[in-house]
Design brief:
Order of helices and strands: EEEEEHEEEEHEEHEEEEEHEEEHEEE
Keywords: Hydrolase, Protease, Signal
GO molecular function, one term: peptidase activity
Largest sheet: 6 strands, mixed, barrel
CATH class of the largest domain: Mainly Beta
Radius of gyration: 18 Å
Number of domains: 2
Pfam family, one: Asp_protease_2
CATH architecture of the largest domain: Beta Barrel
CATH superfamily of the largest domain: Acid Proteases
Shape: globular
Oligomer: single chain
Organism: Dyella flava
Number of strands: 22
InterPro entries: Peptidase_aspartic_dom_sf, Retropepsin-like_bacterial
């Protein structure tokens, strides 16, 4: 996650776009969409509401011999790190193109993920982004188009606030009736709550049902070990999920958003049965059950 100005970017939108089919989660656990870089591709990118700026992984920048454009401080889950910056002419997914883009180079993953990069909020600005993991579909629509058609069956919009000083969006969420905020992060594989939220929601991380999980490594590669286990009922918008498992960990990024308050990082694991329409520019989101939800576990 970064706090950067986006003044150097220009958008090109073309008509009504066709949905793209997502690739299933591979060894890295991320669902990806096909994207084109400088007209070449497709390459697997993560479509990520939790990234303020689009990025590429270092191995991909090297493979494409992308031109360097200095360096930048990258603020991730576990802290900050100085990373290389690269320049590309165009980044395209589902008919939507971002031109004259400067991208940070993410440290290469330590798992088996083969993602080339991340499509962030700069890419989604001025669009309605649709996420439907159960139907294996992602879409990008212009905000000036048929908004009612895109949000059909989704009910009333939920107003979203900026999370702290970031460009990320947050919405109200309840865990076991306790109220907190949830930062929408479709690029996060496992949802997380801080210890403050765990206490308010009567979640006992010392119970036998909890255990330590693999360390979380952010941009600075300083690992933090989360506790994982059942946190109970989670409610956001019209969505109610029971028997939810999540990580409990006090990440620095959570304190940046709202220090000392109940915070959740709402990831793709809890959106597997949800149809989400995301309007970053208008700070609105729509939730409804996915039409394909019955097939998620089938």
């Amino acid at each position: 996650m970064r706090r950067l100005l986006l003044m150097f970017m220009a958008f090109v939108s073309v008509g009504a776009y066709a949905a793209v089919r997502t690739a299933p989660a591979g060894d890295g656990g991320h669902v990806t969409v096909p994207a084109w870089v400088n007209g070449k591709g497709p390459y697997p990118f993560i479509f990520d509401t939790g990234a303020e700026i689009s990025d590429v992984y270092a191995w991909f920048a090297d493979q494409l011999h992308l031109p360097r454009a200095g360096s930048e401080s990258l603020n991730g889950m576990t802290g900050s790190a100085q990373v290389a910056r690269y320049r590309i002419e165009s980044l395209t997914m589902d008919g939507h193109t971002l031109r004259n883009v400067q991208l940070d180079a993410l440290p290469n993953r330590k798992d088996k993920g083969v993602q080339a990069g991340v499509l962030g909020l700069d890419f989604m600005a001025g669009t309605l982004a649709v996420f439907d993991f159960a139907c294996h579909r992602m879409e990008v629509h212009p905000r000036t188009g048929d908004v009612a058609g895109v949000t059909a069956k989704s009910g009333a919009a939920i107003h979203a606030e900026h999370a702290g000083q970031t460009d990320l969006l947050q919405i109200p969420v309840q865990i076991n009736g306790a109220l907190g905020i949830a930062v929408l992060d479709t690029g996060n594989r496992v949802s997380k709550i801080n210890s403050t939220f765990a206490r308010l929601a009567h979640v006992d991380t010392n119970a036998a049902s909890f255990h330590d999980e693999a360390p979380i490594e952010g941009a600075n590669l300083k690992p933090m070990v989360p506790r994982v286990g059942p946190i109970g009922r989670v409610e956001f918008g019209s969505i109610q999920l029971d028997g939810v498992h999540a990580q409990v960990v006090d990440l620095p990024v959570m304190a940046d958003v709202d220090a000392g308050k109940p915070v959740m990082w709402l990831g793709s694991d809890l959106l597997q049965t949800v149809h989400l329409v995301y309007d970053h520019t208008g700070q609105q989101v729509w939730f409804r059950p996915s039409d394909c939800a019955a097939n998620v576990h089938g």
